[in-house]
Amino acid sequence: MTAKILDGKWLSKSLRQKLRERAAILLEGGIQPGLAVVLLGDDPASKVYVNNKVRACEECGVKSFRHALPPNTTEKSVLSTIAALNADPEIHGILVQTPLPSHINMRRILESISIDKDVDGFHLYNIGGLVVGNSIFPPCTPYGVQLLLETAGIDVSGKNVVVVGASNIVGKPMALMLLQKEATITICHIKTRDLAQHTILADILIVAAGQPKLIVPQMVKRGVVVIDVGINRMPDGSIVGDVDFDGVRKKASWITPVPGGVGPMTVTMLIENTVHAAERKKL
Ligand code: NAP
């Protein structure tokens, strides 16, 4: 068996076309969706992510506003930047690029974003919404994974879904979203004993640990659907996921590549949430 590819690049392209059309309709009514991106410090990876997001905005007719703040910016100053963006009618979505410098309380920053502009979906209001299956802006990475599965016709209802990684931005919201779709969920993390004992039972395995080759063929059953969220930069500059792609694809029915799987979907769902935020404003 060789797995079929869950092609996030291809799906993103067609989704972005539709987003461009929705943005054009808004523009006819005098509203251009606007996304503010706040970047604190000079982390090179964060700069790359921000550039990707700004490029995707341009592609979809969303206006982007970049706020690059020096690394020593005080928390008070970040909070007043966000307060100004909350009040700005041209801005429909606000994203604060993480990680933040250690002197900044990330939770305080995320809670300061208006819930109507929380397009990353990290505000407690939106996270709480996930628990009851009613969030306004689902977090972008899990939202993108859900759409990849849906588009391929992979029904999660009643399936054993194993999520490896329990972060607030990927693992936990992913688990909540698929629980809402009636999957049976197992969440594994660094303290999980014998990871393979869990992954081998997965009908759908979602890996977001940030560990290259964490998942090898012996850890999965034949026919599994594998979603690799991991992005790891190797010493030679190449980017790999958390899954031994060449080995695991021989046993899986579907698999996401890295790059070209979940990554482009994350950015696309950010634009989806921003356009959605502008549409809500219009109502
Ligand atoms: P994170 O905050 O570091 O969380 C990683 C999670 O994996 C934690 O729960 C950690 O447990 C767990 N973990 C680490 N090593 C493990 C192991 N050996 N066995 C089991 N669990 C393990 O990272 P994140 O922000 O969720 O991101 C995860 C990966 O996805 C990274 O490679 C990141 O670059 C990538 N990512 C990709 C996208 C995309 O669009 N494709 C978006 C976001 C993130 P502890 O917390 O207990 O240590």
UniProtKB/TrEMBL annotation:
Record-listed NADP(+) binding positions: G165, A166, S167, I190, I231
PROSITE patterns: THF_DHG_CYH_2 (PS00767)
GO biological processes: L-histidine biosynthetic process; methionine biosynthetic process; purine nucleotide biosynthetic process; tetrahydrofolate interconversion
Cellular component, GO, one term: cytosol
Xref: Pfam families: THF_DHG_CYH, THF_DHG_CYH_C
Positions of the Tetrahydrofolate dehydrogenase/cyclohydrolase catalytic domain: 6-120
Keywords, alphabetical: Amino-acid biosynthesis, Histidine biosynthesis, Hydrolase, Methionine biosynthesis, Multifunctional enzyme, NADP, One-carbon metabolism, Oxidoreductase, Purine biosynthesis
EC number: 1.5.1.5, 3.5.4.9
Molecular function GO terms recorded: methenyltetrahydrofolate cyclohydrolase activity; methylenetetrahydrofolate dehydrogenase (NADP+) activity
Keyword Hydrolase: yes
InterPro entries: Aminoacid_DH-like_N_sf, NAD(P)-bd_dom_sf, THF_DH/CycHdrlase, THF_DH/CycHdrlase_cat_dom, THF_DH/CycHdrlase_CS, THF_DH/CycHdrlase_NAD-bd_dom
Pathways per UniProt: One-carbon metabolism; tetrahydrofolate interconversion
Tetrahydrofolate dehydrogenase/cyclohydrolase NAD(P)-binding domain sequence ranges: 139-281
Catalyzed reactions per annotation: (6R)-5,10-methylene-5,6,7,8-tetrahydrofolate + NADP(+) = (6R)-5,10-methenyltetrahydrofolate + NADPH; (6R)-5,10-methenyltetrahydrofolate + H2O = (6R)-10-formyltetrahydrofolate + H(+)
PANTHER family in the record: C-1-TETRAHYDROFOLATE SYNTHASE, CYTOPLASMIC (PTHR48099:SF5), C-1-TETRAHYDROFOLATE SYNTHASE, CYTOPLASMIC-RELATED (PTHR48099)
Subunit record text: Homodimer.
Family, as annotated: Belongs to the tetrahydrofolate dehydrogenase/cyclohydrolase family.
Its job: Catalyzes the oxidation of 5,10-methylenetetrahydrofolate to 5,10-methenyltetrahydrofolate and then the hydrolysis of 5,10-methenyltetrahydrofolate to 10-formyltetrahydrofolate.
Protein name (Swiss-Prot/TrEMBL): Bifunctional protein FolD
Organism field: Acidithiobacillus sulfuriphilus
